[in-house]
Amino acid sequence: IKKLTKELFLGIPLTSSIREDSDYFHPFVYHNSANGEVKNTALILQMKAFSIKRLMNRTGIMDKQNFELILEKGKKMFSPTP
After folding, report:
1. pLDDT per residue over 23-45, tens digit each?
2. Domain residue limits at 65
3. Superkingdom, according to UniProt (predicted)?
């Protein structure tokens, strides 16, 4: 999501377990050359800092629409409640 330092970035972990769409989870599908269609769920509630060493190999690319939806859900988590 955002580069913090030369060796850390803010990211959202994924799981292959499909969860119901909510403010904390976002299911999506992406395609990669090795496995074809891959189903994942973004665990928005578990947003955290990761080491760049976790990016040893990129497995696929998420479409822009899903990425923007996940960003919006992440922003909602940090906005003050009325």
Report:
1. 889 999 887 777 778 888 999 99
2. 2-78
3. Bacteria
**Element containing residue 30 per DSSP (H, E):** strand 25-32
Contacts for 16 with CB less than 8 Å, ≥ 6 apart:
38, 39, 40, 41
- The count of domains in the chain is 1
Regions of the chain short of the pLDDT cut 50: none
Please state, in angstroms and rounded to a whole number, the distance separating the CA atoms of residues 14 and 28: 10
In terms of Cα–Cα distance, which of 37, 56, 54, 55 is closest to 27?
37
Give the strand order in the sheet containing 48-51.
Answer: 2-3, 8-11, 48-51
Question: Residue with structure tokens 């189903």?
Answer: 39
Cβ atoms of residues 52 and 7 within 8 Å? yes
- The residues that bridge with 39 in the sheet, in sequence order, are 29
Query: What pTM did the predictor assign?
Result: 0.75
